[in-house]
Design a protein that fits this description.
about 260 residues; mainly alpha; Cyclin A, domain 1; 2 domains; globular; Cyclin-like_dom; cyclin; Cyclin/Ssn8; Cyclin-like domain-containing protein
Amino acid sequence: MSRDEIERCSPSRKDGIDSVLETRLRYSYCSYLQSLGMRLELPQTTIATAVVLCHRFFLRRSHACHDRFLVATAALFLAAKSEETPCLLNTVLRASCEVSQNPEFAFFPYLFHGDWFEQYRERVTEAEQMILTTLDFELDVKHPYAPLTSVLLKLGISRTILFNMAWSLVSEGKFLRLYLGNEDEGDFKILRMFFTWEAAFLWLRSSLWLQFKPHHIAAGAAFLAAKFLNYDLSFFPNFWHEFQTTPSIIQDVVQQLMELF
């Protein structure tokens, strides 16, 4: 789907939720998932999968009819299973209760009575089943990490600052000093400023996952990293071919990535 189709045809529009409000709602459940996933010490791949499952769910269901935090909790539980990093449901629920102490994620006012935990468990289980049926039990999520690594390795630029920066755009956002080599201190400082979790996680909050294939996002991340570092990609004429994309697709990905900073 195109960006325009996603924004115009969202089921939330029928319930009076405009694209600006829906973007805020999307950002809030992404932030919640990030906080919950980190508390559970889950890999970034698992967290990213949960985010994509939520995006897919709300592409088909209205925010007005579904508690986004309940859906996100169930999505992370599902993602942990599908990515083979399983967590006990009770562990996920307790962690989510701890995360909800942040006023930004407060969503338990109706649970504060005697059997609230059992009710919460039941509601998350119901949300899990709704996600499964809404997505036709399709939980497979392809990430841009593999194509990014394989293509840059093939092009011979997998051990450079460009690789580190591109990886940060689609990965954990931590400072990955895989190889600094002879790069000067100026470039090092650029990376230190750039590799923050918030900057790297922003792209997951957007609708890029719903618009483009993983290798297109990987190509956009590599191209944007090269732009930041003034890295001349003309030395790699096969760049587009290796990522199986076109300049116009990359420009679209890069433009949307840039809007997030």
